[in-house]
């Protein structure tokens, strides 16, 4: 798994139910965009607003539509630890490639070890640990190295902390690159992450643009990758001011792209006031124009 591994939004119909037709379109779009994998039922997917049966049905829809064309990772974090284990089993039965989970807050090193071993035993094989701390440093480097050395399936760490760039390097160095590192919410630090050797990045939306940035960087065209990324920054300046704004914005972008029938959200704070509606429209226009330009470039190369 390498490159762009987007976190999938959960589409809802106007009546509030999960829209599986839109979900299937999103999966096909993600594969066609050249992504290196996909992550379902994470924060961007409003996982906290979904029931167990809804999550199970979504896992099955995504896995069946994807048909193992690219790695599908299921986020199984839940307030109830029994649900986390049950979702891990569902992911395995559906044919997902792995699971992503956040260690419950307050768990000491050995509690985390037992918990993650239980998740790994129930899951499909690949274990990604989410090191999420919106304003702090997250788990200590010593804990991460210990867990990596004692859990065979623990092969990916998703870092979403303050000073994420420094932590990417510290983890890669401490494990001699054996623990794969990916970033998520710190997408504004994408160029920094690529320069540090991060193997994958997990943004939301704008897949074709991010794939183009990643491919330019990997081909040695660092200046071209940076120039393209700098055109994305005005969009991120709006979308990433808060997770609720991000969820709402990318739902509306999916609708504008023709992937979702509705931009409906369950996240309570995912609403725009009139000024945000105007700013979102400008940012969305930028994203759509940039995606069309990339599509034309790809078409030109193909011909």
From TrEMBL:
SUPFAM superfamilies: Aldolase
Pfam families attached to this UniProt entry: DHDPS
InterPro entries: Aldolase_TIM, DapA-like
The entry's keywords: Lyase
EC number: 4.3.3.7
GO molecular function: 4-hydroxy-tetrahydrodipicolinate synthase activity
Protein's UniProt name: 4-hydroxy-tetrahydrodipicolinate synthase
Originating organism: Roseobacter fucihabitans
């Amino acid at each position: 798994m390498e490159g762009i591994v987007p976190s999938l939004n959960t589409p809802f119909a106007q009546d509030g139910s999960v829209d599986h037709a839109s979900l299937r379109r999103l999966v096909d779009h993600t594969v066609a965009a050249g992504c290196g994998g996909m992550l379902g039922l994470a924060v961007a997917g409003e996982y906290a607003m979904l029931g167990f049966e809804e999550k199970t049905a979504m896992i099955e829809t995504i896995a069946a539509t994807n048909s193992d064309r690219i790695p599908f990772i299921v986020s199984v974090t839940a307030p109830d630890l029994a649900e986390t284990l049950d979702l891990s089993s569902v992911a395995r039965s559906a044919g997902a490639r792995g699971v992503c989970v956040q260690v419950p807050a307050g768990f000491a090193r050995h509690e985390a070890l037992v918990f993650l071993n239980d998740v790994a035993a129930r899951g499909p094989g690949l274990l990604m640990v989410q090191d999420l701390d919106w304003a702090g440093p997250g788990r200590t480097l010593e804990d991460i190295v210990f867990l990596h050395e004692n859990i065979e399936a623990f092969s990916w760490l998703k870092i979403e902390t303050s000073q994420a760039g420094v932590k990417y390097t510290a983890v890669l160095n401490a494990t001699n690159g054996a623990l794969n590192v990916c970033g998520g919410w710190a997408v504004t630090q994408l160029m920094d992450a690529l320069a540090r050797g991060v193997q994958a990045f997990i943004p939301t939306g704008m897949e074709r643009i991010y794939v183009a940035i990643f491919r330019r960087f990997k081909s040695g065209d660092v200046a071209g990758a940076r120039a393209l990324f700098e055109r994305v920054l005005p969009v991120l300046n709006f979308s990433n001011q808060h997770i609720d704004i991000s969820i709402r914005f990318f739902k509306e972008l999916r609708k504008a792209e023709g992937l979702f029938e509705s931009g409906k959200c369950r996240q309570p704070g995912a609403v725009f006031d009139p000024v945000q509606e105007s700013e979102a429209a400008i940012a969305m226009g930028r994203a759509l124009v940039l995606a069309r330009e990339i599509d034309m470039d790809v078409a030109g190369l193909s011909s």
